[in-house]
Amino acid sequence: MPLVPPNVASLTPYVPGKPIEEVERELGISGVAKLASNENALGPSPLALAAAREAAGRAHLYPDGSAYLLRHALAERLGVAFEEVFVGNGSNELIELVVRTFTCPGEEVLTSAGSFVAYRLAAQAHGRAFVEAPMKARFHYDLSALRARLGPATKVVFLANPDNPTGTWLTAAELTPFLEAVPPATLVVLDEAYVEFVDAPGFPDSLALRRRFPNLIVLRTFSKIYGLAGLRLGYGVARAELVGFLDRVRAPFNTSLVAQAAGVAALADEAHVARSRALVREERPFLAAGLAALGATVVPSQGNFLLVDLPGTDGAQVFQALLREGVVVRPVGGYGFPTCQRITVGLHGENQRLLAALGKVLGR
Ligand SMILES: Cc1ncc(COP(=O)(O)O)c(C=O)c1O
User: Fold this and answer.
1) If you measure from the C-alpha of residue 194 to the centroid of ligand 1, how many angstroms do you get, rounded to a whole number?
2) How many angstroms separate the CA atoms of 106 and 121, rounded?
3) From the CB of 89, is ligand 1 less than 6 Å away?
4) For 57-69, what is each residue's pLDDT tens digit?
5) Is the beta carbon of 92 within 6 A of some atom in ligand 1?
6) Domains along the chain?
7) 132 in ligand 1 pocket by Cβ < 6 Å?
8) Which atom of ligand 1 is nearest to the CA of 303?
9) What Å distances lie between residue 305 and 163, 300, 346, CA to CA?
10) What is the DSSP letter of 76?
11) What would the pLDDT profile of 212-225 be if each residue is shown by its tens digit?
């Protein structure tokens, strides 16, 4: 009898961005710039931080298992019903929870190749067949290819919009015909972790689309624009019936008391959201122009990061060389982009530093 099922034995664990402390320890340097995990360069919302500190004084108590105040605040802000909101330990937990709750043996999880790796991990961990459609023009979801792979066994389709690691996005005009082609019993998860950074015209209003497509599940996170990645808090919106099932399967206290309190405060901190959005919208083109000037191909992005192709380079080597310059980025060879790096948009000084370091590494 094997110790674990074959689908678990063959799992490759998620590789996170290198923590600053680890890089500093390994290289014996300090002041490392971490542009590896699409975190908020401005830090947490100050209002959320104050609420978290206050809530920490009640850390001996279990959290509210129903996350009433947080779900209430989310429902109000999003203009949806309380019963349509669910929360989790990062949206990563919710990706996994959707697969765990809704898929049966023999059913398939469908997404695009080169998209967020958590979809594959969730499917594989639960022993579900994982189907990928190839991308088009290297970095874009190909909705026709995805459509061609829809079948009677397709239970969940994951679409990251904007996508990670490419930063590319689907417009409403592209997405809507795809949703029309998906059978009602197939759930479509729109993973909008970066939605608050979008300024492209024609971006889908996912919450409005839910009214037409009750099989739509929208996932979002407090890790990016709200700057709370370390507290682990994500949320989703789906029809109440689906939320009811997710609720039965999730762990009873899947979000902490501190995270819930911080989340409520972060939602109300409009100034921090505005600052964070403005930083990315200002620095994203600055960084893109600087990278292009170094000869990189910069993939157009609506996230707080850029996917950058440096043709002829070895992604792992460029990553290591940048590390030695005190800048951590994310090589994405594992996503099928061996000559690319994913670079988070940082503070202006961090972006300048990355450009100088990359110029040095490339000898340009
Ligand atoms: C597309 C996408 N979805 C989900 C997540 C998970 O975020 P979290 O679990 O921190 O909410 C990320 C994180 O980088 C992401 O890029």
Assistant:
1) 8
2) 17
3) no
4) 999 999 999 999 9
5) yes
6) 6-43+271-362 (3.90.1150.10), 46-269 (3.40.640.10)
7) no
8) 16
9) 10, 10, 9
10) H
11) 999 999 999 999 99
